[in-house]
Amino acid sequence: MHNANLVIFDCDGVLVDTEPLTNRVLAQTVSEAGWEIDTQYSVTHFKGRNLKDIHQDVEDKLGFKVPDLLDTYRTRMYEALQSDPVPAIEGIHELLDLLDDHHSAPQHRCVATNAPIKKATITLTGSKLINRFPHPQDPTQFAMFSAYQINKWKPDPALFLHAASVMGHDPEDTIVVEDSVSGVEAARNASMRVIGLATLTPADTLREAGATQIVESHQELIDQLSAAL
Question: Is 131 helix (H, G, I), strand (E, B) or coil?
């Protein structure tokens, strides 16, 4: 893997261990609407996707409108995150230390997520990661980019291209770390290299989506990024 000047991290499942909580809440909300699913189904079919598309899937399955589905989910999800802060993924602080050792300026990493900034702020604050993503142009802000800011969601490449542009880097000099099919596809659509983190999503699935490299733990991710910096 060639050298990289920018590393873009997905948030949920890559930096913070939110997927079990959020998918449990989503599965409960969808089940109460009339389509009985479990947490594993939500992980397999909904993880990393735009909530509006998931909402449409639910209404197509049920054959009727569920107008309050997303509001109900968001309310429950934020309540759960506030009452039970999610932990940082094991090994992520060591990985960020590695990046610090290789770069002296803050514009070498950022977060790009399909989730709202509010959610990313809550989870990264609770996991004590937020201060590790300073904004290169504004020390009062953090280097976080949300699909809701530009109304373009993965697998559309716009979010990653926007993040790289603001951070001052070209796509070919960027590596994306993703754990979902939609995220891997977005990175490839942006002509960026992408490391697929195969924890909840199988390695073969991420590879088929176009992942440049596959890792199954953050220690492997540290090894891969060490070689790319």
Answer: helix
